[in-house]
UniProtKB/TrEMBL annotation:
Keywords: Signal. Residues 212-442 form the Tail specific protease domain. This is Tail specific protease domain-containing protein. It comes from the Bacteria. The keyword Cell inner membrane does not apply. Residues 1-20 form the signal peptide. GO terms for molecular function: endopeptidase activity; serine-type peptidase activity. Pfam families: Peptidase_S41.
Amino acid sequence: MKRTLSLVLMCICLQQFVTAQQYVPQYFAKQEMEQDLVFLHQKLANVHPKFLNKDFAKEWQEKYDLLFGHLSDSISKVESFVALSKLLSEVDDDHTALYFPYSTRINYMKNGGLSMPFSIRVRNNKLYINEYFAEQAVNGIAVAELLSINSIDSKQLLHDVRVLAGNKNGTSGDKSVERLFAMCYWMLYGETKQYELKIAGFNSAVLCKAVTNDKYFQLKNKFYPPKEEKSFSLQFSENNEFACLKIASFYDTEKLASFLSHAFDSIQENKCGKLIIDVSNNPGGRSSSVDSLLNYLTSKPYSQYSSISVRPSLELKNKYKVSKPDFYKLIADIPVDSLYRITDSLLIQIPRKTNSPFTGKVFVLVNGRSNSAAATFAGAVKRYHLGQIIGEPTGGTIKYYGDFLAFTLPCSGLKFVVSAKEFVQYGNRKLTEGVLPDFILAAQNAELSEIIFLLKNTINN
């Protein structure tokens, strides 16, 4: 009897253990989803400048009504995120989007979830295998073009993942697409136990099994040990003819300012007369970081933008009343259904005096992944003739929206941001394109010596 009782108790404990290891999705009722949608609609209509355009607002309203009228009686948090991301993508603004529910993905992976044992890269609107770390190696698969996964065409995959990454129509967010690809695939197509990969140049499909969280990191670290990625770096060419500043992002103003102080001191000490500022693959960051770099390139007043217009919503006024009281006074009495254009005098920046200003030749290296503040920096350099832009057209567009306000949906708890300002930067007369380079230069991930060779060859020709 005792033996039987012990076995029963053991089975109960094992069952509880197994249950604890299973991922249980969080679901919401239709009424809760409706409340979230109404809240989302309200904040978009109140805050975003594009909703002042009646034609745009009407077109977006139709898509909203379509989603609202076809809600399921029960919807998971992941399904909610996918549906709302698709709706937000119709605003066509990289800075208006939902934050990814990382905690949901982590919960899934830590409770028996599965992931793909490979990563991807995006180049010229195509998918490529970046890292492949399945238990069974496949020769020649790394850097090969990926045509489909489980019969889903790569073009469709890229489109769907771009929508979730908040970059429906362009390439400016493809760095996020690469980083979040496995998570987005799971959200879009559900749990996958095996991947059938159709690869360009392969006679047959490559089959690989999905892996658990522990196995994923074990295999990835085995075949692709983590590499330290520096936010900023300084290199010199032979004979110190060229210096090269690599700025990976403009997010941390304080760290960048400290780095630039030492870097420009070193450039001056080495009597270097030519400077390459590499902001390729730079996703952007803070305008104050751009100012800290421009301080070393000019002593004359400048502006980062051709114009900035603000939608003075109640939400923005309430925020600025506390955080920016001086600016709040300018917009306090302006109607919420209008755009307030910031005067030119408020856009002008007076450079801060530095110990080691650079007066030599400047070349700014950009590509299609130079976004937001990185593109703004390139545009300002071009506008004020501070140097020459080399590389490829930047990501994003000359006219864009940003300086967002953050909100939380009342039922699902999903967080989202909405742009409150319209920016027009320099660098191209066409507002729907990026900053144009003065010289086209294909220097993707090239070494400094190769960049210098290509630069000299391009300019001389």
